[in-house]
Amino acid sequence: MKPREIADGVFWVGALDWEEKDFHNFQTPRGITYNSYLILDEKKVVIDAVKHKFFSEQLEKISKLIDPKEIDYVVVNHIEPDHASGLADLIRVAKNATVICSQKGKEGLFKFFDCKDWNFMVVKNGDKLRIGKRTLMFLDMTMLHWPDSIATYLVEDKILFSNDAFGQHVASEERFAEDLGLEEALKWAKLYYANILMPLSTLIKKKLEELKGVEVKLIAPSHGVAWKNPEVIVKSYAKWADFEPDNKVVIVYDTMWGSTEKLARTIAEGASTYAKVRLFHIRKDSWAEIVAEILDAKAIAVGAPTIHNSLFPPVSGFLSYLRSLKPKNKKALAFGSYGWNGVAVKEIAKVLEELGFETKQFAVKFKPTKEELEKAFELGVELGK
Ligand code: FEO
């Protein structure tokens, strides 16, 4: 079967990784896609390689359309191994190809591969390349997702090959969000944003402003499905980059003998009188999902018991992850239980305050009394308000 043509003369030659359930500790229950595209014009252009394990799949798809020796250009929008680890094998068969990338991309490729014999074309923001009837334009996407990142714009067709930006970790036979279902595509896009791009939100806001000057009819990212209605995902990115909140409280906790759990449930009950509530157990729920809910929450509460005069380790690990993602604009509550030293709540509060959240603290000894549960309920009501 011929590879799928996503636009006139533009073919999907990527790979579906149905089995991969983890990307840097980001749980991917529906797998991962490594998108690559072949543009057939007077020049033959491959946009992005794939993860090394899937190189033979990419080559098989390309070979159904052309002899790989005919490839003139391989654009490396981004050197992270999920896209570029199959590059050396591709260049081995695409003997005449020139690799197009940013200066930082070229420097990085020399660290990953022995590429002294490769032909390179280093591009800067706005550079153009005529490939026959059509033109490629290269856009700087620094830190989206690494310093080397660029995007490639097919000028006449108005297709933006955005690489990581606007992507989703989901494997599907559908190639377009509109076929997968917009609601589902946005769910995976939000998980991707929260777990990969959230700390880059300030940069993303600037980049969205710059992209307003580029008319785009199709966004074709390197992960997941492409967007035939780009405004849907661009609008969502603007909301997420602004940390525009939903009327929602997210409560996350872990527990040893049920006291912190009792507090968590009581806080949730209180909060639910004014807001939507999401309650998560740190060892039993997916961290990827938790941080996606935190992205657009107005308030969060984090709870843990104290153990060995320290914060309960799973909560410590989760807070370390949360800190790295730099969520913004939230009210917070640190809560928990202790036996003889209430270290945990203070340590949770320290992290939440470092993130810039106005934070209250609530700790109980051994087991919450009736009065303490009433207090927890009231704290929940305050968060909900
Ligand atoms: Fe999909 Fe930053 O790699």
Q: Can you give a write-up of this model?
A:
- By secondary structure, the protein is of the alpha/beta class.
- The chain folds into 2 domains: 4-241, Ribonuclease Z/Hydroxyacylglutathione hydrolase-like (Metallo-beta-lactamase, Chain A, 4-Layer Sandwich), CATH 3.60.15.10; 249-384, Rossmann fold (3-Layer(aba) Sandwich), CATH 3.40.50.
- It has helices spanning 55-63, 81-84, 87-93, 103-112, 177-180, 182-197, 201-211, 230-241, 259-271, 287-295, 313-325, 343-354, 370-384; strands at residues 5-7, 10-12, 15-17, 22-23, 26-27, 32-34, 37-40, 44-47, 73-75, 98-101, 119-122, 128-130, 135-140, 150-154, 159-163, 218-221, 248-253, 276-281, 299-303, 306-307, 310-311, 331-338, 358-365.
- It starts with a strand and ends with a helix.
- The protein binds MU-OXO-diiron (FEO).
- MU-OXO-diiron binds at residues 78, 80, 82-83, 145-146, 164, 222-223.
Rg (C-alpha, Å): 24 Å
Helix segment count?
13
Q: What is the CATH top level name of the largest domain?
A: Alpha Beta
Helix content: 25-40%
Strand order, biggest sheet? 1-2-7-8-9-10-11
Small-molecule binders: MU-OXO-diiron
| Secondary structure category | alpha/beta
Give the overall form.
elongated
CATH H-tier superfamily of the largest domain: Ribonuclease Z/Hydroxyacylglutathione hydrolase-like
Total strand segments: 23
* CATH architecture annotation name of the largest domain: 4-Layer Sandwich
Q: For the terminal residues, how far apart are their CA atoms?
A: 57 Å
Average pLDDT value? 97
Say what oligomer this is: single chain
* Sequence stretches where pLDDT stays below 50 over 5 or more residues: none
Number of spatially distinct domains: 2
Largest beta-sheet details:
7 strands, mixed
Q: At the third CATH level, what is the topology name of the largest domain?
A: Metallo-beta-lactamase, Chain A
Strand proportion, as a percent range, falls in 15-25%
